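TASK: fixed-backbone design
INPUT:
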């Protein structure tokens, strides 16, 4: 089927600009962009001047299958992603059991096949994510792994990590690290400082992130492996990142949308939906992260979607599970930075779509002729109040419950197929 999207405000993160144009989709590919008329027989969608951008590629999505299907299933994650404008999810390996063998990777790949959006999987860097023995990286790559990570289980044995980096380098694999010094971070529920002390919460110093990043970057320098830091959240970590890039190392970095739009004071009176990993930082750090995204020092914005059931969140703050769902809130939360004048729409989609695609070698993330027609149509100014019980995710642990937000996804397309939205279509005949 041929689709004709007319009168769209195209957000192009590659050209870093906006144009009003029509767009032809044929065979799941963007066939033409310009002021042409609709091809004969095409289905016509009037975008009404609303924004059309590349679909979001969300790196670091936790899906509960296998082992924690009660928190999130492939079906509910797929529905949430489509509603949030996420056309590709990069799923994490921190499942029960971990995705650390080709057989387990093939299992989750089969389970993901029925989801309306694209799903690619990371695999664990070490067996069981225990940091003692590296996985069969080559076999896992053959089975479809796009990256390797132990997520929040930071390896304490530097020799094991060095060997894994060396092996990953020899195979051209991407390693995704979580920059934290595990000893300092253990048991922490908040960022150390006056606020944590007044609340009586065990804190972790921001230096833990810098120390963890320094160790990883030293190993990157020795091995030459491609490395992505999943979340940089403190200003003091940015100079090390800049030095690594100046030295020519293949290093990129991400940040979660929560650390761009919230700070440590949002925890308030022990609100566990605001307990995250890493914990929320100071307002100075939050502003530094926004500036780093604007300048390109931080490449990627992600949701770090981490579903948690009610029982694991309705506990004292120290004991409650960390993490928040984010597939549906990633986009409107990121638009807070647009409405605040901190980032342009093209800069936001550079971090949400183009840079993740470049990092993983995917053809998506662009609006150009020949690119896959993975697109999101949205109104950046449409206001709404978020109701967590209306989320498609099984788990409802969002810090944005009851928040006033602006920016609604009107339609989501994957390979030219509308997987979400009620945008009217007319026959071009």
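OUTPUT:
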């Amino acid at each position: 089927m041929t689709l004709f999207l007319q009168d769209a405000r195209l957000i192009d993160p590659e050209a870093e600009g906006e144009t009003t144009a029509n767009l032809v989709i044929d065979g799941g590919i963007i066939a033409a962009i310009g002021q042409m008329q609709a091809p004969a027989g095409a289905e016509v969608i009037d975008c009404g001047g609303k924004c059309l951008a590349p679909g979001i590629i969300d790196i670091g999505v936790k899906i509960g299958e296998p082992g924690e299907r009660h928190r999130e299933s492939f079906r509910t994650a797929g529905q949430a992603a489509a509603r949030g404008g996420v056309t590709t999810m990069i799923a994490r390996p921190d499942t029960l059991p971990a995705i650390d063998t080709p057989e387990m990777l093939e299992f989750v790949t089969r389970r993901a096949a029925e989801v309306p959006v694209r799903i690619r999987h990371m695999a664990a860097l070490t067996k069981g994510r225990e940091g003692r023995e590296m996985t069969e990286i080559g076999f896992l790559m053959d089975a479809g792994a796009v990256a390797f990570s132990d997520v929040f289980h930071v390896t304490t044995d530097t020799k094991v990590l060095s060997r894994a980096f060396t092996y990953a380098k020899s195979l051209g694999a991407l390693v995704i690290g979580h920059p934290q010094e595990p000893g300092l971070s253990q048991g922490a529920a908040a960022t150390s400082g006056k606020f944590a002390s007044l609340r009586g919460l065990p804190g972790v110093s921001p230096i833990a992130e810098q120390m963890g990043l320094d160790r990883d970057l030293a190993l990157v320098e020795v091995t030459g492996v491609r490395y992505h830091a999943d979340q940089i959240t403190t200003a003091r970590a940015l100079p090390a990142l800049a030095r690594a890039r100046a030295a020519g190392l293949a290093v990129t970095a991400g940040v979660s949308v929560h650390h761009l739009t919230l700070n440590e004071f949002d925890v308030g009176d022990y609100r566990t939906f605001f307990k995250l990993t890493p914990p929320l930082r100071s307002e100075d750090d939050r502003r530094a992260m926004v500036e780093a995204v604007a300048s390109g020092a931080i490449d990627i914005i992600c949701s770090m979607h981490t579903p948690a059931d009610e029982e694991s969140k309705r506990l004292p703050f120290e004991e409650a599970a960390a993490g928040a769902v984010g597939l549906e809130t990633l986009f409107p939360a990121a638009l807070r930075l647009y409405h605040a004048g901190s980032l342009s729409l093209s800069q936001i989609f550079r971090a949400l779509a183009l840079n993740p695609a470049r990092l993983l070698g995917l053809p998506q993330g662009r609006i150009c002729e020949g690119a896959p027609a993975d697109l999101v149509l949205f109104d950046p100014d449409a206001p709404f109040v978020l109701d967590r019980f209306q989320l498609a995710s099984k788990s409802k642990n969002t810090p944005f419950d009851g928040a006033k937000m602006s920016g609604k996804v009107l339609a989501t397309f994957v390979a030219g197929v509308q997987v979400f939205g009620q945008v009217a279509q007319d026959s071009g005949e």
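COMMENT: The chain has 13 helices and 19 strands.
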